[in-house]
Protein 1
Amino acid sequence: MGLEEYQKKRNFSKTPEPKGTEKLEPGNSFVVQKHKAKRLHYDFRLEIDGVLKSWAIPKGPSLDPAERRLAVQVEDHPVEYKNFEGVIPPGEYGAGTVMIWDFGTYEPLGEKNLSDGLKKGEIRFWLNGKKLKGGFTLVLTRYRGNRKNWLLIKEKDEYARKGSNITEEQPNSAYSGKSIEEIAILK
Ligand code: MN
C-alpha cells in the first residue's frame, strides 16, 4: 500500500501528525493508539515492510480468547506515527485526541515474514507490550468479498485472561500516563 493514501488524506501544515517516510531497515514495533474521534476506537499498528500496517478496532483489543474483535484494515501509517500522542485539530482528517495506549515489539509466530501472511489473510504474532502480551492472531473474514474486515483474537497462553476488559482496567497512556482528557487539554 505505501504511504500515498496516508499523506493524501492529511494536511501537514494543519495537523501535528508526522508526514513520515517508508523505512528501508526492518523493524518489529507495534503500537495501539486510543483515538477519540467521532467514535472512540483503538488503532492497532504493526511494523511490516517499512510502514505501520493498521487496523481500527471499534471495541479495542481483549486478552480473552473468546472475544473476537473486529479489526478494519485502514491505510498504512508511517513508522514515526508510533510516537504520536496529541490532538488532531477540528476539521482535519481523524479530528480528535490520540493516545499511545500501548506500545512495544512483536515476534512473528509461524511464518517468519508477516507480509506473506497478510496476503494470505492470516498472521500470528507474539506481543511484548506494556499491557498486551502473548500470542495473537489476525485473520481476514472475507465477508462479502471485501478484504478489510479482520478479527483480532487472543491465543490461549499464560497471558490469556477470561472475562478481562483491559481497555477499561487500564485506560491511560502507556507512554505518558495521561488520560484522553489530559491529552486533549495540554494541546
Ligand atoms: Mn483512528
Protein 2
Amino acid sequence: MFIPKRIIFEKGSLDYEIGQNVYNFFKDNKNVEKIMLKSNKVKQNIPNSDDLRKFYKEGKRTLVVGVKKGLKFQSCKPSAHYQLPLYSGCMGQCQYCYLNTNLGDKPYAKINSNIDDILNQAQKYIDEGLPDITIFEGSATSDPLPMEPYSGSLKKAIEFFAQNPNGRFRFVSKFDDVETLLDIKHDGKTEVRFTLNTDRVIREYENATASIDLRLEACKKIANACYPLGFIIAPVFLYNNYKEDYKKLLLSLREKLPENMINPPSFEVISHRYTTRAKNVIMEVFPENTLPMDNEQRKYKYGQFGYGKYIYNKDELADMKEFFQKEISEIFPESEVKYII
Ligand code: SF4
C-alpha cells in the first residue's frame, strides 16, 4: 500500500466520497502531511520543483487527490476503447517506466475523487457503442492498486461494470493490494492482469514495487475470486541464463494458480525496448541505472510516428519467442498467448 509523505487535496476534492475516504484513512497519521489547496497549484507544494531529480524523488512520495474536470476520455487502442481516468501517476520507481517520459513533470500519483462523474461518462460511451461492448482500461497512465485500500475507486468501478451488460473493465498492476477486491460482485466483467518478472529484474529495476512472491500471492487470490486473469511478462531482459529464471517464474506461477480455472489465463510477453527520448529521461532521473541501453547492441526499429525504438536483434528475439511459446504452452496448456514481441 502506498503511504505517502504528503497528500495534497485539490479544491473541492473533499466534497466527494473518494476524497473523504482518503482523508479519513490518513487523518490521524501524523507522519503524513495534509495540504489543503485553495487554488490547484500542485507543483508549488512539492519541494525542489526546479531540480528534476530531486523533484522526481519528492513527487514519488506525494499523493494528490483531485477532481477530474474535462470528461472526454482518451482512446486506448488496441487493448481497450477508452482509458478510465480513475488514477494517474504511480508511486513505483521502475527505472524503465514509460511514465518517466510521458508524465515526467508530474511524478506524483493522483486520485480523481469525482468517480460518479467518471462512471456516468463511461455509461455515455457504453450507450453510444450499443449494441457492441465497450472496454475501458484503468491503468493506462497509472498503477491503481497501491492506493486502492483507502480510496476504493477500483472497487466502485468493478461493481459498476458488474451490473453493466455492455461494459468491460481491465487494469494491470505490479502490486499486491487486492484484499478489498476479493469479496465484491464483479460478474466476470473486470479482467485483472499482473505484470510479472524474474526476481533479478524486479530487484534491479523495479524499485518500490511488490516483490515477486507478493505478486504471485495476489495472482492466487484474484484467481480464487474468479476474476478473468491475465499476465504480462515484461520487460523481458535477455541476460545470461534468462531462460532459466523465466522458466522458474512460470513454474512458480503455475504452483500458485488453482487447477481448472473458470477463466483460463492469457499471456502477453514483451521484450525490453527503449526510445532515445526515454533513454535521455532515464539517464537524468537514474544516472546510475544499469539498464542495458547500448544502442550498438540493439536493432533500431522505425516507428509509425517517427518514434523509433531500440529492440533486441532479430536472432535474439526469435529465440526468445520460441522459448516463451514452448514453455507457456507446456506449463499452461489451457492459456491463450496473445503475443510475444
Ligand atoms: Fe511505472 Fe508501472 Fe513501475 Fe509504476 S509500477 S513506476 S507505472 S512501470
